């Protein structure tokens, strides 16, 4: 693998996952969770509901790509991007400020201001790749942490397996994921990370970093109940290292076979689940 590509992947992965785990810890400290599908975080219906939502949303995007003019499609996708950036930037900045000050008013004001600032920057500097990666970090860290602390470990495992199957089908069978990815990357939107090298710009979907963080945050939710600080971070970090290994394997293959689309989540999921099993046997 190109050393520059490996370095970019490593930096983005470490920053995203470290920020996400810190935010997840703050969510737990302040007892902040979200109701996803049902109020019970251990309910498998949450996993099934999220999968259905992803499939429906993908279908809507495909319909828009087919029938909307290019300019209108860009406006719609840009609006979705802006909502995602604002929501996650608000979540992250406000929980940091609230944890530090204990003031809802101050944290809300700073969170709203920071979210609007990032959205404005993405609109003004829409073609800036570095800024796109920065906003992707916030979107991934915020979403992954919130979903992770709001779901039990087994629903997350079910979700990972279902998403891996969906990812495989969407890339190799229906190939609609490849079509969606090409449309998004051509518009420089914050739904992927850009990893440019002298020969080629590789694209890594935010989902390939969101789902490992979801798993790690969910495991953190349970381990912090029985393990003292900072040891309760160990299982989550080991799981993330397994995910990182899966990403390297995928990107290494893709870098040697340019033009090949390869889903990263299936190998990540296999390695993370195997690591989780070892951790459970080891007593974590």
Can you describe what's shown?
The protein has a two-stranded antiparallel ribbon with strand order 1-2. The protein is globular, with a radius of gyration of 18 Å. The chain is mostly helical and 284 residues long. The protein has one domain. It has ten helices and two strands.
What's the quick description here?
By secondary structure, the chain is mainly alpha-helical.
Please give a handful of descriptors for the protein shown.
mainly alpha; 284 residues; two-stranded antiparallel sheet
> Biggest sheet: strands, sense, closure?
2 strands, antiparallel
What is the count of β-strands?
2
**Structurally, how many domains make up the residues?**
1
Fraction of residues in H or I helices: over 70%
The proportion of strand residues reads under 5%
Q: Could you name the ranges where pLDDT drops below 50 across 5 or more consecutive residues?
A: none
Write the layout of secondary structure elements.
Elements lengths: L2 H27 L15 H23 L2 H32 L2 H21 L4 H21 L3 H21 L2 H11 L5 E5 L4 E5 L1 H20 L7 H23 L8 H17 L3
Antiparallel strand pairs: 1-2
Helix pairs in contact: 1-3, 1-5, 1-8, 1-9, 2-6, 2-7, 3-4, 3-5, 5-8, 6-8, 6-10, 8-9, 8-10, 9-10
């Amino acid at each position: 693998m190109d050393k520059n590509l490996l370095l970019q992947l490593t930096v983005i992965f470490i920053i995203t996952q470290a920020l996400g785990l810190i935010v997840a810890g703050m969510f737990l400290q302040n007892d902040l969770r979200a109701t996803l599908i049902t109020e019970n975080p251990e309910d498998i219906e949450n996993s099934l509901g999220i999968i259905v939502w992803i499939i429906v949303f993908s279908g809507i995007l495909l319909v828009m790509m087919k029938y909307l003019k290019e300019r209108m499609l860009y406006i719609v996708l840009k609006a979705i991007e802006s909502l995602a950036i604002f929501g996650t930037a608000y979540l992250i900045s406000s929980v940091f400020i609230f944890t530090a000050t204990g003031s809802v008013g101050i944290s809300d004001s700073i969170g709203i201001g920071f979210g609007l600032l990032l959205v404005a920057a993405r609109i003004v500097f829409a073609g800036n790749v570095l800024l796109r990666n920065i906003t992707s970090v916030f979107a991934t860290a915020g979403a992954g942490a919130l979903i992770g602390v709001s779901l039990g470990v087994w629903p997350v495992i079910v979700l990972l397996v279902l998403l891996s199957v969906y990812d495989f089908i969407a890339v190799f069978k229906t190939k609609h994921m490849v079509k969606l990815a090409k449309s998004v990357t051509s518009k420089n939107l914050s739904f992927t990370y850009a990893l440019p090298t002298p020969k080629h710009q590789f694209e890594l979907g935010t989902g390939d970093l969101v789902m490992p963080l979801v798993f790690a945050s969910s495991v953190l939710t349970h381990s912090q109940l029985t393990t003292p600080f900072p040891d309760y971070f160990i299982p989550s970090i080991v799981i993330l290292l397994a995910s990182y290994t899966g990403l390297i394997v995928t990107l290494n293959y893709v870098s040697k076979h340019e033009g090949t689309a390869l889903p990263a989540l299936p190998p990540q999921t296999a390695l993370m689940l195997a690591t989780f099993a070892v951790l459970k046997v080891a007593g974590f």
